[in-house]
User: What shape does this take?
Amino acid sequence: MSKLKVGMVQQTCSTDKQANIDKSIAGIRACVHDGADLVVLQELHGGIYFCQAEEVNMFDWAETLPGDSYRQFAAIAKELNVVLVTSLFEKRAAGIYHNTAVVFEKDGTEAGRYRKMHIPDDPAYYEKFYFTPGDLGFHPISTSVGKLGVLICWDQWYPEAARLMAMAGAEILIYPTAIGYESTDSEDEKTRQRDAWMIAQRAHAVSNGLPIVSVNRVGYEPDWTGVTKGIEFWGTSFVAGPQGEILWQGDQTTEQHQVIEIDRNRTENVRRIWPFFRDRRIDAYSDLIKRYRD
Assistant: This one.
């Protein structure tokens, strides 16, 4: 099956977990109605982006897998006969929590999971307080619709992550995301940040000859501590082809669902004319495992 219809659900989130889940499920239904074989949800779609501040009670958003929301998404994948990429806050053990993407097969079984490897710690993005770095490595998840190279948000900035997924046979790179502007940023700075975010991911598409699916949350979420003025998540979910071409791009302010057809045969065709994998100098890259070259 070279042609694959991919659905994306770009949504706002509130402090009502079940309402967020219901909204995601409504988006999944809409995508399947429009022909999607695979649906991708945004990062941490079950709740607010709680990492704006460091507060221990926010760990209550997590669940041991399989938990309640896990079961709801497994059930909808089975009901609708669709492969589903979710993003869950996993409680692995006391004091060990992960930002985890769980992929469900069309029969509702778990096809695999990926734990976020790169964990940021920036103003309003205090993820190191909450998430233990992933320990599952960079391995595509095999499904009935192909090998999915699932990564999460901050992983978007690292070419090594995309390359390792591609080297392991990923057919698509998928990025559930939660990124936005700090409300006091200038308009010029906002434009630079969003452009850089898109350019980085489109570059992964080009250098690996793979399509990219990036699904970001949207809407304003206040900082309940009052330290900052909150985050305006910039939406702009998009799909790019293996030459970095934009196949679809969402807007910056509204909730959307969209289905886009991807032709995976283009990977073979593009890699024949741009043989980056052939020309890699793997004999000269050993210093990449160092933190820095002095």
Notes: Residues 9 and 257 are 5 Å apart (CA to CA). The mean pLDDT is 97. The two ends are 48 Å apart (CA to CA).
